[in-house]
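In practice, a research group might receive sequence data for several interacting partners and want a quick structural hypothesis before committing to experiments. The following worked case mirrors that situation: the sequences arrive first, and a predicted assembly follows.
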Amino acid sequence: VLNRVSQPQRKEPTVAELTKSLIAGDRAALARAMTWAESTRPEVTQRFREVLDRLPRPTSPSIRLGVSGTPGVGKSTFIEAFGQSLLGSGFRLAVLAIDPSSLASRGSILGDKTRMEKLSRDERAFVRPSPSRGFLGGTHARTFDLIELCERVGFDAIIVETVGVGQSEVAIRDLVDVVLLLLQPSSGDELQGIKRGVVEIADWILINKADGDRVAAAEATRMEYESAVSLFDRSVQVEKLSALDPKQVTAFWARVKDGLEKKRKTERWLGQRRQQVESWLQSQVSVALIEKYLHSAEGQDKIRSMALKLEVDASGTFDMTRGRREIEDFTRG
Amino acid sequence: VLNRVSQPQRKEPTVAELTKSLIAGDRAALARAMTWAESTRPEVTQRFREVLDRLPRPTSPSIRLGVSGTPGVGKSTFIEAFGQSLLGSGFRLAVLAIDPSSLASRGSILGDKTRMEKLSRDERAFVRPSPSRGFLGGTHARTFDLIELCERVGFDAIIVETVGVGQSEVAIRDLVDVVLLLLQPSSGDELQGIKRGVVEIADWILINKADGDRVAAAEATRMEYESAVSLFDRSVQVEKLSALDPKQVTAFWARVKDGLEKKRKTERWLGQRRQQVESWLQSQVSVALIEKYLHSAEGQDKIRSMALKLEVDASGTFDMTRGRREIEDFTRG
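A structural hypothesis for the assembly, expressed as tokens:
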């Protein structure tokens, strides 16, 4: 270790350099820009924003799709097949994952490598595996930034994937044009994970794994959900499908595409995008407020000095009344 | 509908009345106080805080346990059995669920009724089913409030249950003394849902459903995780168990209790609770900032007028550069 030769540091590109590489279609540059977007260092996210502002806005509308479902339901398999159908229609596709669980560290503990292998290798597609450090609304704001980035570098179809049963599902409706909810033939157990809130935001409910000896169970589940959603005052399509069968997936994509094209003609689509601006503003303002008042050096100092004043006694509790007074002073000042 | 007799409105109790009922051990009052705590109306949460401040702080330390796991893993069955063991040790138990998915509406779409039936009926226990409207850090702050409330009305064991793979798992370590992560014998598929971040916060990993023909698979999964966690620089216990076998559950509870008692003697426990004060402050300040600047009538007016300025064009996008300038003005002003 004594005479260790110092490694040459890979130099970070400037804003102008990264913008240039992005316009040239450099995939490594795209990954880099996303890493900047997701940085917890404000000066880095600031650089990302400068890059974004230098890229041209798309001239024709993109397609934004949300794919949601609990772990094990077959999201990756479905997106792999569905993505091929989109590429077949001439779209350039970016797949982004909202992963609120990667706060502490990144990636899953076992085998995430083979996710969407075909799409990952296809030059018309870009797959960004689960990176977002979701916290305090940051997930939503950052994902919107990533969508915008992908569109500005030429992707005209975006899939936003969410991994489970959390807030991300509810937030997804503020990010995309169409939400697909994947379920599997039910065994009772899984239904617990599907909350009304999640079902209510879906435009399509897909019972996946309708293959082999699970076709009948899939149909039963489909009917169950079809009757459940009939209570809603908006239309939700419920279908069963096997993501392993490319023909079924392509036929399904044709129906989604058709639905979207009709929606665009009625201007409902533009209305929805307008509403999303408000949601974008809300989340960006939240992030900005928290960065300014809480995550700043000054904010952190205040928190620490407040914590010191609130002594935890032998019962393991502290004086919350006093704590709340401190917080009032904080937000007033 | 013409001559409909107006229903007598159930009168809301005053702060003093509710406090009195809580001290008398009234369970309906406890449910009411929780509803106040989770209200989106600031004047109602303010009333909740006044109630909380009037209740006495506990004199002896409680036990705070987190139970986490994806849907279908058997959390309810486990907590039902585990809870019986706690009651058997003389504890009074409250079970709280963090459910970030119930933002849009409440409760699961199918069959949530039979959850923890025995515990729900036991007067030494109180089960609060998944109510929190999690948004922008609010979940964490409110759950802390509920824990505090339960302890102040005499519950000395609190289980905080989280439903999935999201932020809530990561936030849970800031709420409890010990985190139990439930898994099931793996089929490869489910592992995707378990992210490193979630595993890293667990003190105990329990492979549930180790019964019948799944015992061997459970043992294989246990060994897999045991080798995975051996890479961590902190100790995590990995066990398999069947939540259907009360003996196994009681034996497991004895080990958890033993571990906790040892932890308390080393003062590590008090150190952890002290750190949690800081985390409580952070989340309360976030909520206060967002309530003051964003959710206030003034804040919402500003957001709407900003949204109006940002016109969505035919491509479905808007001028983000301008949007960010607006946000800067917002947080500066």
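Before designing any experiment, note the following. The radius of gyration of chain B is 23 Å. Confidence is low (pLDDT under 50) at residues 1-6, 100-113, 132-137 of chain B.
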